[in-house]
């Protein structure tokens, strides 16, 4: 019963975590914030976890662990629901566009190139900007998302150390690894559903049910598209609330595996348990006396410390990969957020789940000791890293955007810092360089806005709007001025689809191989410490991952991604908003650096292996 309840909790917490990561780009665009701020939001989960995990890990083992886990699930549910609250407080989402489908829009309206600008039109645009600026003040509500994620972290602190130590206390040693492997497998099944839920919600417009979808002029692949990011948090919060219920009906302790229920319920055994529980109910002050000595014993354990260091580096890489892979697929291969989340959910996550499950079976089938577990971890780390090396060769070219990545003639690639959105063909149009409403010209080039394409007339409405007389669009024979453009960016090159498929295949394979060594590594941390330090060792281990892995990784990598931005959105009140376009070559270099972090792990795992071999079997060498 306890294992089933804990498995459901693991499923829900991983569902919520993966869904949060799948909504990174949606949150960034909805609140008009850079990736570095989104990284802080993502890291807030670890911050909340950090606040209580050490105390929960040490003192929680002395009390009613199932009820503490149930209380943690309630907090996780409250935090998840809080993350959805800003949607209902902020009002409707308004994106910048040159196409008006509403009589009173709250967006800055720019017309195509017109040499005759009327004062009344300019005044109307100014008034609309002021109105939009007033409404934009609500965008600071991203703080509620941060606080909700932090509350999730506080609640999650009970499930890991208390749940795993509870299982290890009452299960046979040979079954403990299998049960933990099953838990980790369930935890990875959660992200499959989390990313799939993220894919479904990303396909729905953020204000579906409240606006006429025929008036929405952007598509799923548009950098301004925001899906129904809030919907998944409501679903995940409700499910987490249900998983909290069973824990309140579970006993404080269970009979050890192999002990019959009759013997466990016998008067002698119950009398012994009552005496043990009476002894456990000591004052907090007395319990605290042993905390520092216990911590010292952990930190002087060489195997434990080396394992924690290697896990921190590995966790850095995985946090970066899981957080920003959807964004990477969008930018590098031109996929929509919905497609990216769906494919991650059905390819990479099953590979992780299968790898973790098989690793548990390997530990149970071969009854691996510390030495065997270290060997498995070492070789899977090497093979997994080798699978990541080809990532760097899977490249696509930047989109051809006039003035940003190519010249207006389209014949020469340029660096964004050397480009200019203004050209002779649009110099008389008085265009704003801050506007982002891309159009695709007949010549296959994308222009940042119809005005910058030199277009002087339109036909059609909504998504079917066509711009005519575009002076910057050059056709065959260097003829200009008589060509048209349609809303949206031009399609990416065909080879990107092939590269995308290869990338997904390699990523799935590397995840599978890495995860084959996950359970052996986790068993090492449980078996290399004294039995009474199990809960504390898991808690300190998770604390270290949060402080040095989960918190800084999304923040510094988010800042690194921001440095690759070549076109920023502009807030209505001024200031930088969300990025509209990245230099994918710089983005790719940053992504490859995250995989290089994993290479360092190999050396640490190798050192861990050597220590284990010398300590437990000094005559058997790899």
From TrEMBL:
A matching Pfam family: Kazal_2
InterPro entries in UniProt: Kazal_dom, Kazal_dom_sf, MFS_dom, MFS_trans_sf, OATP
SUPFAM superfamilies in the cross-refs: Kazal-type serine protease inhibitors (SSF100895), MFS general substrate transporter (SSF103473)
Signal peptide positions on this chain: 1-17
Major site of localization recorded for this protein: membrane
Domain Major facilitator superfamily (MFS) profile: 2-622
UniProt entry keywords in alphabetical sequence: Cell membrane, Disulfide bond, Ion transport, Membrane, Signal, Transmembrane, Transmembrane helix, Transport
Kazal-like domain location: 419-474
CC annotations in GO: basolateral plasma membrane
Residue intervals passing through the bilayer: 68-89, 178-206, 226-250, 304-322, 342-364, 498-526, 538-557
Membrane topology field: Multi-pass membrane protein
Single GO biological process annotation from the record: sodium-independent organic anion transport
One GO molecular-function entry: sodium-independent organic anion transmembrane transporter activity
Subcellular location: Cell membrane
Matches recorded under NCBIfam families: oat
Similarity section: Belongs to the organo anion transporter (TC 2.A.60) family.
Name the record gives this protein: Solute carrier organic anion transporter family member
Species assigned in the record: Atractosteus spatula (Alligator gar)
